[in-house]
Amino acid sequence: MHIVKKLVDLPSMRVGYAAGGDSESGADGMSANLDPSWFVGDPPWRSLFETWLAEAVAARIPEPNAMVVGTVDEQGHPATRTVLCKGVSDAGIVFFTGYESQKGRALATNPYASATFPWIALERQVHFRGRVVKVDAEETLRYWNSRPRGSQLSAYASAQSQPIGSRAELEAAAAATAERFGGADDGEPVPVPPAWGGYRIEPEVVEFWQGRANRLHNRARAVRTSEGWRTERLQP
From residue 49, how far is each of 38, 71, 88, 108 by CA, in Å? Predict the structure, then answer.
C-alpha cells in the first residue's frame, strides 16, 4: 500500500491582513481604507491604478507589472497565464504576444479577457475585465524596438504554444534565427514576427482590493455603463 505523506495542511493556512493599514494611498491624505471616493478623473480607475503600480515598483515587488490574464476558448474552456503589462492609457492596458499562441487563438474566438495584478506583498490586487482589441502596427513596432535584441530573436524563433520535441530543438531554432539576423547588437534589425503584436484590454469593470483584518477586506469597483462610469463599494 502506497502512503502519500501530507506535506501541507491547506485548510489551516491563513494570513492576517492589514499589516500596512497605516499607509495612505490616493491624493490629499485619503483614509487608509480603500473607498470609492478614491476614484477620480475619467476614466476613474487610472489615477489610482498608476499610484498603486508606482508603489509596487517602489516596494520592489518582483515583476510589479505582471498580471494574470484569463481567456476563454471556442469550447468555453478558461485558461490563465501570467504576462507583462506594457502600456496603460485611458483606453486600457496593453500586453504583447503571438497571435497564434493559445491566448491569441482564444481571443480570436472570444475577444474578451480578464487581468489581475496580484500585489499580495502589499495586500492589494487590481482586476480588469473587458473587450480586447489588437493595437495598431505602429504601437507594436514601437514596443518591439524597445525590446532587448535577445528577446526579439527568441520571439521570432518561437512558434508560441506549439509543441516541440526537445529543449535542443528549441535552442537550435533560436541559434538559426540569431545566425540569420546576426546575434550581435550591430546585426541586421530583427523585424516584428508576422503573427505577433499587442492587445489592449478595454475595461468595462475595474476592481481594487485591499486586504483587511478578519477577512473584512475593502473592495471598490468602477463599472462602465452607457451613461458613463459607476463606482461602488463591494462586500468582501
Answer: 10, 22, 9, 28
What is the Cα–Cα distance from 2 to 8, expressed in whole angstroms? 18
Cell of 71: 481567456
Return the closest-CA partner of residue 16 out of 164, 173, 216.
216
- For 115-166, the pLDDT digits (tens) are 999 999 999 999 999 999 999 999 999 999 999 999 999 999 988 888 889 9
Which 8-state DSSP code applies to residue 122? G
Contact 124, 210 (CB under 8 A): yes
Sign of CA dihedral 100, 72, 79, 150: positive
Active site residues: 215
Which pTM does this prediction carry? 0.89
C-alpha cell at 236: 468582501
> Cell 471616493, residue?
37
Phi, psi of 15 (to 5 degrees): -125, 130
